[in-house]
Recover the amino acids of this structure.
């Protein structure tokens, strides 16, 4: 099982990075045989999506797409800017193939300086995962600046929720991989046009 942690901040040592790292560490501890990787978008020189087939990108962009496609579970974090995910992370969602997240477990973390933004997970990230037909892990974690002290995550409740998110990612993925069934995606019926 491959578990990918993705920090949507381009700032190194950000609160988002620290939070995603904490959840990935919990996932690895819950399932030591899992291969866990942590990716910071600030370390990748990705191309802006221009609509070409995802297989045609090169260099860091291709490497990042491949990591996401190969992952079995993802924990994705973003700082909240202007009540939304970062442009860098939005670009990643634009770059990846449409079926790259289908059937995978995804947990979300959002960080922000104000409690006004905690609904970004429910209003933007979860619907995005639904578009990709991923399984959203309940209990996305919103981390506020007040949960940190001198650059360290100190809030015990948030630490516990990040731990549970990481554990749930590997547990759900293990369950999905070890069941002998295929999840059927609903088909959208076509409407018949009536002529008058």
């Amino acid at each position: 099982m491959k578990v990918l942690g993705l920090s949507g901040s381009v700032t190194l040592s950000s609160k988002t990075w620290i939070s995603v790292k904490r959840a990935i560490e919990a996932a690895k501890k819950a399932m030591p045989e899992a291969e866990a990787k942590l990716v910071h978008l600030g370390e990748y020189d990705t191309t802006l999506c221009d609509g070409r087939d995802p297989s045609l990108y090169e260099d860091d962009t291709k490497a990042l797409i491949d990591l996401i496609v190969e992952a079995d579970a993802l924990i994705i974090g973003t700082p909240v800017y202007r009540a939304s995910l970062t442009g860098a992370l939005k670009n990643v969602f634009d770059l990846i193939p449409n079926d790259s997240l289908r059937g995978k477990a995804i947990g979300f973390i959002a960080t922000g300086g104000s409690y006004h933004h905690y609904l970004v997970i429910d209003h933007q990230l979860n619907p995005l995962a639904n578009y990709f037909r991923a399984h959203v892990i309940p209990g996305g974690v919103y981390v506020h600046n007040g949960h940190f002290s001198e650059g360290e995550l100190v809030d015990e409740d948030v630490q516990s929720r990040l731990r549970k998110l990481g554990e749930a990612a590997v547990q759900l993925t293990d369950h999905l991989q070890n069941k002998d069934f295929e999840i059927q995606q609903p088909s959208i019926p076509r409407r018949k046009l009536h002529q008058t």
Q: What stands out?
A: The longest helix spans residues 156-177. The chain has one domain: 2-177. The two ends are 57 Å apart (CA to CA).
